[in-house]
Every structure is written in C-alpha cells, then in structure tokens.
Amino acid sequence: MLGALTAAALGVGFVEIRKNNGQATDSDRWVLRTTGPDYQDRHVVFGFRRDLIKAGDRVLMVDDWADTGATASVARALVEDCGAEWIGAACIVDGLGNARLRHDLPLRSLIHVRRL
C-alpha cells in the first residue's frame, strides 16, 4: 500500500513486485528473481509481468522496512533485467547498517532502526 500511495502522490505509475506468487498461467511473460537470504535465512522468489516495466523507465522501490537489503537487491536486478534505470530505494525504517555497503543500494529512509 505504501508504494501505491507514493506513486499516486508523485503522479507516476506503480508496479507491484509479487512475492512467492507461484507458477502463473502466463509465466513466460514474467520476470523472476530469487533473493539472497533474508533475516530468517529464507530465499524468496519475486517477480512481475515483464510488460509493466520497459527499457528507459526510471524505477524507485518503496518499502516499509529495509533489514538485509535482499528485497531491494532483487528488485534492482529485476528492473535491470527489463532494461530500466534503477534510481534507488526509499523506506520508512532503515535497518541495513553496514549491509548498505554490501548491497551498493542507494537508500533513503525516514528513520534508522537504532532510533526506535
């Protein structure tokens, strides 16, 4: 919901990245990637319909919480798979710490987890 509200406020398009969506009947039209381990050491498959992001589009990922950076890293790879430009990630709570350096993610947040 946060991403959709942000897109509406900015007057831009919105693409929902689906998590563990399972095999869709139109799976050949999807771009999919698997994350590295998250905070519970799980690997998650993310994806969206290939025709929703086109070469030359500029994409900002919006999320509520960034913990390991795995979701943002896989989202960036999906965007780049489509030939679009990754401009960064925005979240409410930044819990990455030094992980930001490992993932090379431009990230803007409202608050860092240490301040909660």
TrEMBL record:
GO terms for cellular component: cytoplasm. Keywords: Cytoplasm, Glycosyltransferase, Purine salvage, Transferase. The keyword Lipid biosynthesis does not apply. GO terms for biological process: purine ribonucleoside salvage. GO terms for molecular function: adenine phosphoribosyltransferase activity. It comes from the Bacteria. Residues 7-97 form the Phosphoribosyltransferase domain. InterPro entries: Adenine_PRTase, PRTase-like, PRTase_dom. Pathway: Purine metabolism. Its main location: cytoplasm. Gene3D superfamilies: 3.40.50.2020. It is found in: Cytoplasm. PANTHER family: ADENINE PHOSPHORIBOSYLTRANSFERASE (PTHR11776), PHOSPHORIBOSYLTRANSFERASE DOMAIN-CONTAINING PROTEIN (PTHR11776:SF7). Belongs to the purine/pyrimidine phosphoribosyltransferase family. Homodimer. This is Phosphoribosyl transferase-like protein. It comes from Kribbella steppae. The lineage of its organism: Bacteria, Bacillati, Actinomycetota, Actinomycetes, Propionibacteriales.
